[in-house]
Amino acid sequence: MRSLKKHGFEIIPDVFSRQSMLLLADSIDRSIVRRSRAGVRNALQLGSVRTLANDAVLLGHAREVLGQQVVAFRATLFDKSPRSNWLVVWHQDTALPLRERREAHGWDRGP
Question: Cα dihedral sign for 44, 71, 85, 11?
């Protein structure tokens, strides 16, 4: 996790097999979930996405960074492909589904 501390991200190769990703993509393509040109919101409603989000290997990597109480709370699929491409300007998602607001050291809005 040296890169995470230095650069703010980590690339972990081969977390999932190509075959598992092809099966996931096929499952999403065959689903009746509402899609926009940009992709799919609320993708955790799809069983295949929920299964991926709860994969032990993926959760293990998340726990290394976030602690033992990690849980998937949102999944959004952005369809950035040759047939569906669009500009996303640099931004930071900040909306979290919280029951209440609490002050905690290191978790403020910044400067």
Answer: negative
**Which residues on adjacent β-strands are paired with residue 2?**
none
CB-based contact 66:79 (threshold 8 Å): no
pTM: 0.69
Per-position pLDDT tens, the chain of length 111: 778 888 888 898 988 899 999 999 899 888 877 777 677 888 888 999 999 999 999 999 999 988 999 988 888 888 777 877 777 788 777 777 777 888 888 776 655
Dist. CA 35–CA 9, nearest whole Å: 29
Q: Are 21 and 28 spatial neighbours (Cβ–Cβ below 8 Å)? A: no
Q: Are strands 39-40 and 77-78 parallel, antiparallel or unpaired?
A: antiparallel
